[in-house]
């Protein structure tokens, strides 16, 4: 009987930026252990107001995450009689219900176990998309299958300019992506490019991924983590509430019908406008306008300064002083 | 107490093309006055069959619309106790109901006022998207926040090749776009490009906006209105009923699931096919085919002529003469 | 009275790849006859496990499909009094119900006939999108209107590098696309590019279509069918069940809200993981890993071999031999 790889996440706190290294055993696989650690990391990032961003990279020299631990996927299937599409739908629904009722643990040794595990991974990825924390993947090495899907669940991706690839090879094993690949890659690079890549099973090189928008930057291998931290720090300076509201409006509202999406945006917008922080900053903006006679965003240098620092510089006290 | 900017729209009728100039006060802001005038303009364009297109530009030398009047956004929030996401959702729903019941006026001095105003702006933008009138933004200057969102609500955008920008800086004020920016920009340039731009708060230069499809043309400053009018005239030659049906199918159906979107298209399609104009033109097309022995769209020169004039040239009388 | 063009599809079986040539009469039109033959072809391809892909091309020297037979569209409209959008919606719903109840034949001579025919064409195109069979359009010549919509319903498109075009000219006849053009082109090239092209009625040249992703390859005229067959053979080597599941997840799930789309993916994924073929291949993959000490997809040469053959090479027997 084969040993199950025992994976872990090694987390380092760099003053509000958590840098997590995936240790996925000799084959650098994403299995249940990694899924559990990731869930805990996302929890921590959401609960600790000091955490602004998370950078995730692979501890393996040339792999980010090779792909899912195949036994994890296969085992459940072996225990379940062949069920067809209707049956699979029913299992997916049951797993969702079990996850909501926190029955995951109780069911993990049953045939429903792997489907419940999958449901949990999906919920974790969705929480990354709903969060005010910025997630940056530092792709030090290849990411296939669930490795790629994990990368698509981040907000930004930096990839090493190396002989590595990212993509969805599942079709070549007679299966298909199950960790969101058909959905997130489709929304990232467009329906057709995504369809062709997943039907063929062919991964993207760093240059291809950069050209089609699947990754945001390609840098020399030794700079991948540094560049990812730089992006994490830059985006992490913004208001966490604003980031969360924007991510929810774009990821969820942006994939709905236009009218439904606009409703999502309006509810999120009103929350930020009614917040103490939003109120404070808008009042300050108006005071600065009165004091200087120009809108701050149109005052030379101010917009650039705001982009660098994450917020329009506070001029209220100055303005009040000037105004008196 | 600060004065509220009083804005207006100056509208010039150039034979079916309305050219509207936004006067937004010294700071060129989009406030309640502009919102009211725009609503009236959209009404007029929809009701007057002679109006085929509307070009909107800024009266300010180097601004299209600076952004929203901040006091307008802030005031409502100040009056409402902090409510969280659930409460904000409830306010958004109440505002929608109030707008439908035409209670906007009665509520405008209450804490719900600004949310009702926002709902009204959304309805106006949606009517621009549903209309058979072609809307072209002539971006003579910068457009930030609600200014950019107003531009995204047009069908086409022409931008001056100048030191100006267009985008969504809201995150830098601790808030987020609320006039449709997270939805329309996402559908215009793709989920990821939109997400990154809005999370960072960084606007596009004219070159960037052209490259990513956020604007359709960039021309020297002094030609912006002329080029926009040219596009308005070109697209405005098409059947107003067809334009309306196509816009609804693409903007609304195109953002639904494929099967729902196909249903929207079919209903719109049947309306145009059953219309007197559609029937007349199809009969004429068949007569021309019989008379000349070739399909008009494949007859040398005819397609080019149709693109220029807006409809396949009427050959029925000629064809009938020939056929007798 | 005009003769109705009688069209047909000439189908050649090249060992699992069906090559179908559209004979659309002297004007190469898509009418009811072609619709019926296509429906039968899609049936055959879905029912015969030996059929892996279908290549469709035009028998006409320089047309793929000119456009729809205009009389087919127009006749129904002539018989129906003008009904407006509400009425057209009702007709579309009635046609859908009639098609589901297999009443098409009984209604084909009534005013509802053409709407029922349209509904049938839509169902055929949707079955192409749901199928494990790969559809490749070999665009030997121009494709306008329904001809273009037929091409968008394929999975891949190869176009001749010739003086030909593909697009939606309907607006120039006072109507609009009704065979899915506003929906599939929108999802293929993005909302804005699709909107502008359909509002203007201007088709794409081969170079434009390649640049914006509307076609996948442009080759010299005499190589169009050969290149399409090559693509059909390449993609057709993949597991038919995987291809079907991926197509449904991307085409249907990919156009839903992210959360709904993820649900579609999960149900499709579980089906493939629970299938005998998926189980077999995953077990083999693990055996090969144990036998060689490396994951097959990371073993030099194996991924390239899998891409060429359509599946990760079977090493189970070898591995077992080695392992003993």
From TrEMBL, chains A, B, C:
Keywords: Isomerase. GO terms for molecular function: isomerase activity. Pfam families: ECH_1. SUPFAM superfamilies: ClpP/crotonase. Signal peptide: none annotated. The keyword Isomerase applies. One of its GO terms (biological process) is fatty acid beta-oxidation. PANTHER family: ENOYL-COA HYDRATASE, MITOCHONDRIAL, ENOYL-COA HYDRATASE-RELATED. This is Enoyl-CoA hydratase/isomerase family protein.
